[in-house]
Amino acid sequence: MDFTRPGGIVVDGVGLTFHPPRRDSVVALENVDLTVSPGEFVCVVGASGSGKSTLLRLLDGLITPTTGTITAGGEPVTGPSPDRAMVFQSDNLMPWSTVVDNVAYGLVLGGMKRARARQIATTQLERVGLADAARLYPRQLSGGMRQRVNIARALAVDPQVLLLDEPFAALDAQTREIMSAELLRIWSADRKTVVFITHQIDEAVFLADRVVVLSARPGTVREIVPVDFARPRDLSLKRTPEFGRVVDHIWSLIEDEVRGSLGLH
């Protein structure tokens, strides 16, 4: 596999140590090795504090590793880039702007004329099933709709890589299920590279081509679990014994560490 192609990611021996003032240093990640193929959907799971979100911020270039290197499309990651778009748990929509202008914001900020940016934003809203909401304001949307706007905004800049940090964590269980299926529908149109952080093992198995399991702090790659279920996937997959076996295997890798993070031994 040629990881220098657009969308390819290589994480080579990456470690990150935080040095907070007047406190002991914290080793968040240690010797992390990971490759992601162009167009692959990879999920990352692990106990709280294992460095999942930290890894995502390293991939986006928001922070710099203490050791090791990261490349995206064959180029060193030294800071944020239009080739990578981040979707956070909080949608961070601007309440004073319409939905279409929220989606167009990054394009306008990059110098595109507003009319053209709105055209692109409208196309992305159609992709996520929110064309009719273009003139609404964020306060008029449900949580699931707001996150679809958030995803449309990320897609509008046409990145090679989507980095999603628990984007459905604030949603109720039923909405979260539907949003997982919607995300796969949206992704299947052009299959951009996706790295998706989640605490929910069943969500990871449903979405991913591979699930990366991080150990407790300092986080390192404990195992990479392939998910071989055919695509497209339907939510009924979650009710099959085969699906349950993959979920159980991943849970067996992290159960003790999750209990430890809660003070339960």
UniProtKB/TrEMBL annotation:
Q: Which GO terms describe its molecular function?
A: ATP binding; ATP hydrolysis activity
Q: Which PROSITE patterns match?
A: ABC_TRANSPORTER_1, ABC_TRANSPORTER_2
Provide the transmembrane region boundaries: none
Q: Which UniProt keywords apply?
A: ATP-binding, Nucleotide-binding, Transport
Domain ABC transporter span(s) in chain numbering: 11-237
Q: Name one Pfam family in it.
A: ABC_tran
Q: Does the keyword Protease apply?
A: no
Q: Which domain of life is it from?
A: Bacteria
Is Nucleotide-binding a UniProt keyword of this protein?
yes
- Identification of the protein by name: NitT/TauT family transport system ATP-binding protein
Instruction: Please name the taxonomic classification of the source.
Output: Bacteria, Bacillati, Actinomycetota, Actinomycetes, Glycomycetales
